[in-house]
Design brief:
seven-stranded mixed β-sheet, four-stranded antiparallel β-sheet, single chain
Length: 122
């Protein structure tokens, strides 16, 4: 059973960096064709894909956030992490990690972590 769990602070000060970690169990983040994504959903808005860790070691980013986004991974811990710098009051959202896929399953997400609420203080 594949499970994902987000961890990290729920409150970040404006202009500082948000750091979140996703711990994966039941599967490896190096499984062939797998992508491991970060997604956020602001209140009342549609989910927004932030970026992903690719099984082969590459990273991919939503261009709208790329300039202040960094994704990394630790294969020994089966974890991948998100750093979003220079947060603003527009960044509060529920942040999720989720497995995603390539090839014929490109665009499919699941399973998902439970999500973590992030608030930005001014």
């Amino acid at each position: 059973q594949v499970q994902l769990q987000e961890s990290g602070p729920g409150l970040v000060k404006s202009s500082q960096t948000l750091s979140l970690t996703c711990t994966v169990s039941g599967d490896s983040i190096t499984t062939t064709n797998s992508y491991w994504s970060w997604i956020r959903q602001p209140p009342g808005k549609a989910p927004e894909w932030i970026g992903a860790s690719h099984y082969a070691g590459n990273y991919y980013y939503n261009p709208s956030l790329q300039s202040r986004t960094s994704i990394s991974r630790d294969t020994s811990k089966n974890q991948f992490s998100l750093q979003l710098s220079a947060v603003t009051p527009g960044d509060p959202a529920i942040y999720y990690c989720a497995r995603s896929y390539g090839g014929d399953l490109l665009g499919l997400f699941g399973p998902w972590g439970q999500g973590t609420q992030v608030t930005v203080s001014s």
